[in-house]
Amino acid sequence: MKNSYLLKFIFILLAFSTSTVSAQKSGADWKSSFLNPPDQFRPVPFWHINGKLTTAEIEKQLEAAKAESGYGGVTVLPVSAGKQHPTGKPTPGMEPAFLSDDYFARYLDILEAAKKRGMQVILYDDIDFPSGSAGKLMKEKYPDDLLKYLDKVDTLVTGSALLDLKLLDDPLMAVVAMNVKTFDRLNLSGFVSQKRLQWQAPAGDWRVMVFYCAKTNHKLVDFMSPAAVAKYLPLTYGVYEKHFKDYFGTTIRQIFYDDVGYVAKERGWTPEFNRKFKARYGKDPDLYYPALFEDIGPETAAARVAMFDTRAELLAEGYPRLVNEWAKKNGLHSSGHPPGNYKLQPTDTNLDAFKFYRHAQVPLLDYIFYHTHGRDGFKLISSAADVYDRPVVAAEMNGAFLEEQFKPDMLFRTAMDVFTRGVNFLIPHGMWYDYRPEAVRIPPLLSSYSPKTGPTLPSYSDFVARSCYLLQGGRRVADIAVLNPITSLQAFFKFNSGKKPWGSYAPPETDYLAVGDLLTRKLHRDFTFLHPETWLSAQCELEKGRIELGNKVNRQSYNLLIIPGGKVISVAVLQKVKKWVEQGGKVIATTMLPSRSAEFGKDQEVVALVQSLFGIDPTVAMPIDREEIRENSNGGKCCFVPQPDAANLSAAMEQMGLVADLIFESLPVLSDDKTEISYIHKVREKRNLWYIANSSDTPIKTNVELRGKLNLELWYPESGKILPVGNPVTVKHGDQEYTKFSLDLPAVKSVFVVEK
Question: Could you report the per-residue pLDDT of 403-461, keeping only the tens digit for each?
């Protein structure tokens, strides 16, 4: 018996080693695998279960998914009856009931049908979205462990009045009195007894603020509470483990959680917050609670950073961590995303994307609603994957694109968008069990049953599989690091602002996504977002003129650091920037230089460091024109670009002597700003490969220069053809050799330039 368990365990490990997150085959097999890519690299769409499951229909639809659409598996997503997007018409839900015995019997049919065809099944962890409800079970069994939010009740006390206030039954987080004129704050928790606050106010005008962790009517688990999530896991993950453990690591290799974060209640909170804050900072957070809603004077910025960063840690170490631990225990890889993962302002949705993806083995983004939606934020997710040395980055694709506006070529355009931004595994959105037009709740229908998209899917799946085969694993080459201005975003944000949609309430100087978009789409210079904590860690080593991201596999080396616009930054971050510049490093800052500290009481240190680096007083109005480059005796250079655009950034980098990794000699002006010509450069098994994509309707013919003296071929993922590069020549930029050749790339086509 023991031997049989051992053999089974070995089999699971071997099977898992060839899964989506596996290492690639050796160089000798590259061409054959590119022409006929393994199924593990093919798209694995959502299969929305919106009808009555039968064994025969399951067999029929999975056969069509593989044979007619070219899919490599399905991500099974049970759905309830709902309203169609955007018509509002009723649509059917799944039968049998979620988590019933009949449901598991039909799920077994799915697994067996997939196994027979060599397809994988990604385990979606709930019914509908977001994750975290276990259907109705979480609310029924654990009503005290559901999502909560931070509530505030104000009372104005004037003069030396006695305040006698009956408190609510919700968990009390803090009681603070703040003088409305001086911002002096008093902790009144010592005046609370038996749900009453009795306090004799000093002279003056005081606002007494009582903060509660209030319950909601939501059905979702408290994502930030490990104790609550531990109760949720057995309701879903545990029952799948009980029924289908034998399929883990083989047919089921990956799990998917959806929209774990905050949208409906931007003030998401947990009773465990104060304990976590005290463990991190060695003091109670009570006096900082008012800063979450309003200005509290000079400490506002640092207080918000400390509070919102603690909240981000709680989310990261809650649901994503516990789910990942369960997945690893069961030989699976965890994947999923929060709401607004690509948004400008993370503080109200995912709280901090880098922290959120810390425990995701396959960081995942969602590309939904329309072409280009969130596109300039996709590099946040792939950068997190870079930092954590994760070889696979996934994307949920094309959900809620309007059917009447969705043309089949959009499948290729959007895939190119994400491939050049670091994604290398696709989950289209998707198939529907009941595929009648009136039954599909969220268009478009991406299956062989769609007259519009069905004929395109085989070539699309081949294109995706070939692209993902080459793009997974290895290391990405990027010369530029862009500091994530998370502290500036946190310092600005406040609850109940009443301004702008979720994910967009950010200071006007926030330009980090716009700068990233300029680098990608206009300047064709790849980059990586670095979180301040990554920058400060030993993972970022400083060399003369280089920053080394010291990963085991996905090592990166940067010759330029960009500090995007923001008022607030950590003193420690600037101290390391100054150290690097003194060693010969190059820095460009954009739009607004920081003048406030993310730490308490260190604003003047920030001002002094900025002045020493850029020669500019950040407490006064910013210059209008680009500043001259300041250079030290070791070759360190700093430049402030107050109005970053393609011309200004290009000129600054050129004056610093920074030559691009890839150079297009000339490009046409595209008529549609939504489309683009973009690239990504990776190194696998000591071979360079560049993926160059033209998602526009304009054919391009240009000379391309790639860094290095190289022997190159052109590999076309749409057709599988491999052709030699015609008449390459070697040119020089300074001391660096480049290989120059002519490239013709038709509209909505892409090519891999692969080193032999």
Answer: 888 999 999 999 999 999 999 999 999 999 999 999 999 999 999 999 999 999 999 99
Spatial distance between the Cα atoms of 609 and 611, rounded to a whole number of angstroms: 5
Which contiguous run of DSSP H or E holds residue 514? helix 512-517
Peptide bond connecting 130 to the previous residue in cis, omega within 30 degrees of 0? yes
Q: Are residues 248 and 356 in the same domain?
A: yes
Q: Is 416 exposed, middle or buried (CB count within 10 Å of its CB: 0-12, 13-18, 19+)?
A: buried
The count of other CB atoms within 10 Å of the CB of residue 239 is 15
Q: Position 108: which residue type?
A: L
pLDDT at site 239: 98
Q: What is the CA radius of gyration of the chain?
A: 27
Lowest mean pLDDT among 177-191, 197-211, 243-257, 260-274: 260-274
Structure tokens at 333: 């890889």
Cis peptide before 86 (omega within 30 of 0): yes
In a domain, 220, yes or no: no
Instruction: Please state, in angstroms and as integers, the Cα–Cα distance from residue 462 to each residue in 254, 409, 473, 694, following that order.
Output: 21, 14, 19, 18
Q: How many CB atoms lie within 10 A of CB 553?
A: 12
The verdict on whether omega for the bond into residue 565 sits within 30 degrees of 0, i.e. cis, is no
* Residue 392 falls inside a structural domain: yes
Say if residue 635 is in the same domain as residue 673: no
Q: Calculate the alpha carbon distances from 658 to 16, 328, 383, 561, 588 in Å.
A: 42, 42, 22, 12, 12
- Maximum distance among all alpha carbons in the chain? 89
Q: What is the pairing mode between strands 196-200 and 162-166?
A: antiparallel
Looking at residue 255, its amino acid is I
Please write the tens of the pLDDT for every residue from 487-531: 999 999 999 877 778 899 999 999 999 999 999 999 999 999 999
CA distance 697 to 707: 28
User: Do 681 and 749 have their domain in common?
Assistant: yes
Cα separation, 614 vs 627, whole angstroms:
9
523 CA to centre of own chain: 23
247 DSSP assignment: G
* Whole-number Å distance between alpha carbons of 128 and 79: 5
Judge whether 629 and 637 are in contact, CB under 8 Å: yes
Q: In this structure, what is the dihedral angle of CA atoms 269, 275, 281, 283, given to the nearest 10 degrees?
A: 110
CA distance 404 to 370: 12
Residue 717: asked if its preceding bond is cis (omega within 30°), the reply is no
Cross-strand pairs, 431: 47
Count of domains for the chain: 4
Question: Structural domain of residue 689, as residue ranges?
Answer: 662-755
CATH number of the domain to which 749 belongs:
2.60.40
Cα(59)–Cα(342) distance, integer angstroms:
37
Identify the CATH number of the domain in which residue 581 sits.
3.40.50
Q: Can you give 57-87 as a three-state secondary structure string?
A: HHHHHHHHHHHCCCCCEEEEEECCCEECCCC
Is residue 170 domain-shared with residue 230, that is, in the same domain? Answer: no
DSSP code string of 642-677:
SS--HHHHHHHHHHTT---SEEES--PPPS-TT--E
Paired tokens of 308: 């919102």
Instruction: Evaluate whether 367 touches 341 at the Cβ level (below 8 Å).
Output: no
Please name the residue ranges forming H helices in 330-408.
353-356, 378-387
Residue 708 · residue 735 · CB < 8 Å: no
Question: How do 568-569 and 596-597 pair as beta strands?
Answer: parallel
CA distance 676 to 695: 6
**Looking at residue 248, what DSSP letter applies?**
B
Strand partners, 540: 549
Tokens for 190, please give them. 């010592």
3-state secondary structure of 326: helix
Q: At 377, which CATH number?
A: 3.20.20.80
Residue 312 lies in a domain: yes
